[in-house]
Structure formats: structure tokens, C-alpha cells
Amino acid sequence: MLCLFLSSCSVKEDRLRCPCRLVIGFDESIESSELSVSVHSAGETVFEDVLHPALLDSRVLLVPRNVVSVISYDPLSELCQDAEIYLIEPGKQCDSIYCGVTIVDCRGDEASAVVSAGKQFATVYLNVIASGSSPTLPESVLVSGDICGLNLATLLPVRGEFFYNTALDEYRSCSFRVPRQQDSRLSLELSGNTGSTGSIDIGRIISNSGYDWSAESLPDILLDISLAELEAGLIVSDWNVKVVESDFQ
């Protein structure tokens, strides 16, 4: 089938006033079945729709001749304060957010964009390891920090109070999702029947392990905490193991 795309400009007209033909495709690594995709030019939204990467649902658009940004993310309209900001509900863990931003030069006749949707959260798998000399074993953990969301247009963290409380299972393990961080201000408080058992600066532990919070797609974290030896071991998804001293008190 032969497809012919025509713009409203003739050869004699000023080409700067003609739109650019933008072809939007998807990175093969995208696992989401559908993505909200929007195109922004000079502060205005010129396109917005839900596309389906698995169906190779590419689009051909006519956009202003300008440098445009293409934002793609899992449909999260009910979770967003507005079109660009995602905020975590107080007392909740971070949602599983996949998002990407592609900057495209559309100042010519044609341009193309291959959009992606990187993992904007890390799941922390926590294991509390006890020995004979361990203090009272904790039953729950409270994770807290100063990042409470994500700017979907820039992929920069949004500052604000974040806290999430969860119980440890019978194996003294649990998991929780934290958003992309900007510094090392994540902390973990352990609690038992008698109250607080101790506090650990897991933000510093993670940073000292070499974990990169600026990575396009964040790997998950396995954090082993020994209450007796006051040590924490960190394993990221590429199996890089690091053991560092914790701030357990």
C-alpha cells in the first residue's frame, strides 16, 4: 500500500511556516502494553494519546517546526496532580512508574523519535538477619525520605515528605518501592513490641554501594541487615555486592 502524506504548504511558500512530519516509534525494550504519549512544543501540548508498543502502534504527526519533547509513561492520569507531576499518596509506597522523555529537533521537513519508558522506581527487598547476640527482633519497618514524586516532563524528583510503614514476614523480610532519589536521605526505622529497635541510614548505604539514582532505568535493591554485627549488605540487580557499615543504633 502506498501512503502519501501532504502538508498544506506549497513549494513557493515559506517553509518555516510549514509543519514538520514527525514519526513516533517505540524502543524494543518497552514492556508496557500501552503508553500515554504526548508531544510538547513551546509550552503547548500538540498531541496526546494512548499508544500500544506491543502492536507497533507508531504514529505520523504534523508538528510545529521547533525542538519538541515527547513524553511517554504508563497511563497514570488518576495518580497525577496535573499533566506533568506524579505525587505519592501520604503513607503509601511509590507506584510502579515507567516514563521517558525524548527531545526531538523538528525544525526540518521530517524527524523521528524512538520513545522509551524507563523504570522510575526501585523495589527494595529487605532481609533482617539475626544472630544469638541480636537485640529484640523488629516486627515492622518505617521507610522515610524527602522525595515524594516525579516530574514526568523532566524525570526530576519532586521534594516532599515520603513515608511508608510495612510489616516484616515470618522470615523477617519485606519489600517496598521508593521513587527516584536526588540525594541520600532515605532512612529506615525498625520497630518491635517494645517500640523502636533502631534507625538505619539506608540512603547513605545505597549511595556508598555505587548505586546510580540517575540511571535511565533503576535496578532493584536487595538489602541484608545484620542486627548483631551492625552491618548492611547491598546487592543491586547486576549482582554487584557491597558490604558497608550501617548507622544502626
Q: Fraction of residues in helices?
A: under 10%
Q: Taking strands numbered 1, 2, ... along the chain, how are they ordered across the largest sheet?
A: 3-2-5-7-9
N- and C-termini, Cα separation: 70 Å
CATH architecture of the largest domain: Sandwich
Largest sheet: 5 strands, antiparallel
Using DSSP, what is the number of strands? 18
- What is the class of the largest domain in the CATH system? Mainly Beta
CATH fold-type name of the largest domain: Immunoglobulin-like
Secondary-structure element string: EEEEEEEEEEEEEEEHEEE
- Structural class assignment: mainly beta
In the predicted model, the low-confidence regions spanning at least 5 consecutive residues are 1-7, 233-249
Tell me, briefly, the overall form.
elongated
Radius of gyration: 23 Å
Strand proportion, as a percent range, falls in over 45%
Q: Could you report the average pLDDT, rounded to the nearest whole number?
A: 80
Count of helical regions: 1
Number of domains: 2
Structure overview:
This protein is mainly beta and 249 residues long. It folds into 2 domains: 18-118, Immunoglobulin-like, CATH 2.60.40; 121-245, Immunoglobulin-like, CATH 2.60.40. 3% of the residues lie in helices and 49% in strands. It has 1 helix and 18 strands. It has one helix at residues 202-208; strands at 20-26, 35-41, 44-51, 59-63, 67-73, 85-87, 98-105, 110-115, 118-119, 121-129, 140-151, 156-167, 173-179, 187-192, 195-200, 221-226, 231-236, 241-245. A 5-stranded antiparallel β-sheet has the order 3-2-5-7-9, with no helix packed on it. It is elongated. 29% of the residues are buried. Mean pLDDT is 80; it is low at 1-7 and 233-249.
